[in-house]
Write a structure and sequence with these properties.
Length: 755
Amino acid sequence: MATDKGAKSAARSKRQAPQTSPTSNPESLAPTGHDADFAALVQHVAAELPSLEEAQGPFPWPPMRRSGVYTRITTPLPTPNGPLAPDTALDGADGATLEIEEAIEGHLGPRPVWVSEELRVDVDGTFPTMTISGTIFRLFGGWLTWIARVTEDPQTGEYVGPISYRNGAAQLLQHTDVRCRLTGSPWIQPGRHARVTFTGGGLQQRVRVYRFVQSNFRTVGIEYDTVEGTNSVTSYNLQAHPNRPADLPATTLTIEDVFTRQGLRMTKTSGEDVIPIDEAMGNQLWSDLEMHDAMQQHWSKFADVPQWQLWTLFAGRHEMGFGLGGIMFDDIGTAQRQGCAIFMDSFISNPAPAGDPAAAAYVQRMRFWTAVHEIGHTFNLAHSWQKDLGTPWIPLVPAPEERSFMNYPFRVAGGPNAFFADFHYRFSEDELLFLRHAPARFVQQGNAPWFDQHGFEQARMDGSAALTLTVRFNRAASRFEALEPIVAEIKLTNTSPVAIVVDKNALISDQLLVVIEGKGKGPRQWIPYQRYCTLAEPQILQPAESMYAPLYLSAGLNGFDLADPGRYRVYAALRTAAGDVLSAPLDLHVARFESREQESLADDIFEDEVGRVLAYDGSRVLERACATLREVVDRTPESRIAKHAAAALGRVAATSGLVLEEGDGTPQLVTRPARPEEAAPLLDTAYGDLDTAADTFGHIRLTEEVTRTAQALAKEGNRSRGAEMTGSLAQVLDGRGVLPRVVAEVRGVAHTLSE
């Protein structure tokens, strides 16, 4: 075992991101000559291909196809007689121009790229979407992504269709229609080309010839780690449970297989390590802070690897409880770094119903679905029932009955039994269209050009009358200091005369949409740093009863949408079983800098890592961000931002917590001890004036933070300080008219800690 673990450590320390060059594609190893016997074999196999694909059922493997990525590169060539190959020259033989370009390229060697074009052909193979798309990059002209849905012309065998989507510099391609002819054998990579004719728009036709590069649309590396004492699930035998489609093949499907067979080549970049955990923390409930720190720490050593990488951590249980099955973090550490955690001690491990014929397989199947579902979120796939909620890249219709990894089995009619009886372990066509053809990082950009405030207002008036959604601040005026973090509260109220069943987790789920619109600026969707995968927990809201949640609006994946001085308006919408509920707009004003001290701190505060530390209320690994917050406390101790900074630093100093360390190449979870002497003055700065703290933190976030910190102090032996903090908090909340139920709960904590 020791030798095996050492080998894993060595592999981890030396691993590289998966290569994306054509030579890494297995198809590139096929013979390139014109051997007669080999050609005859190719013709024979091609003739048998239709029957082979039919016999293989829904999972043809390996894929026999021409679909994939093709490229065309235009470079400045030193030719004495003008351009080497104008567009009109491409009307001749398909490969003639390519042969000339390749010959010159081989003679001259690498040259700077002026224009590059990528073509994505998606017309055969596994689950084709009948789509051809392209990306054009011009050094001095920007970039454009275009998409055409196509059909096959039965007369010519070409694929034809209109360009229905553009994103970017539209002037780079103003034609309206495409016609694509694919040439060469699907078995021999060097012979494959795509000849595309662009027509329409009142313009002269343009012809482009593209060279085949690879059959996969994207290459992704993934690795899995498992916390000691937890089981991981990265594969599933498709016939392990009898409740399945009749044509499901007898095979074991891995997570990598799920994505690779659907056009995204996924490779495991390291072995599956079991991460040891301190014995003292063996029953640890994970917090968002600790999980986020683990993701940050893991990716910190791979900043020089540019390719898309995913990390999946299998852990026990989150402090939110049994109802949270997974959590996904975007853009960890550096660009295109994604991480997700699967909590095995959660609803995904619910035992099978009584009488189930394969109880163990039932649980294994649900765990496997959850893992793929969370990884699907790292590609920015929405839930199947939410495709029109948020930023639709192409307008989509929700499909709540869809049999996709992105739909919840328990949401469809008939529940999990009905879902898995007709589930082929795939993504839907709309989702495949997004995975294979959407512009890179489209969703993360956060721009919301689709948002129309007048349409929002009309929809609000026409929406559900049974529920009311409110966004609010707990302060007399919605005016904020420069640099002050802005924390709102979201409130869902039953305004009907009868009880209504809602999802307990609705206000922290991605069923909630928030848009921020600055005066003179375009609307932006607020996108938090993490997404939760929760079990729908029914909660009965009695008439006039409400449920609440805090919203940390200052920072998210978009950056800092409320950083600049000025006026803003916040809108919120929530999808519920009773219908869509929209809030009245909430106005706020961010003040200008009052001193050079504030202005000099701004550049450091408005950094991604600082935003994350404030949003997660602390970090044990983002040292640079924590140093910035210490400087804020030292230089502007009376400011509102100093209270937030001190709260984040004080929480971490007041309690011990888990940190992932990989110093010697072997990951392990260790406990960082509390630092009570450091915590005391920070907590005084944060909560010394609880009435002012309630203004800036909001009642909900303040209650959560003070209660959590007080309990941490008690755990470290300082019960009296914890009791004092919660007792004072209860008094302030009572004076501010907070619900008696909440005040009583805080007083109960204070009483327990004082015993």
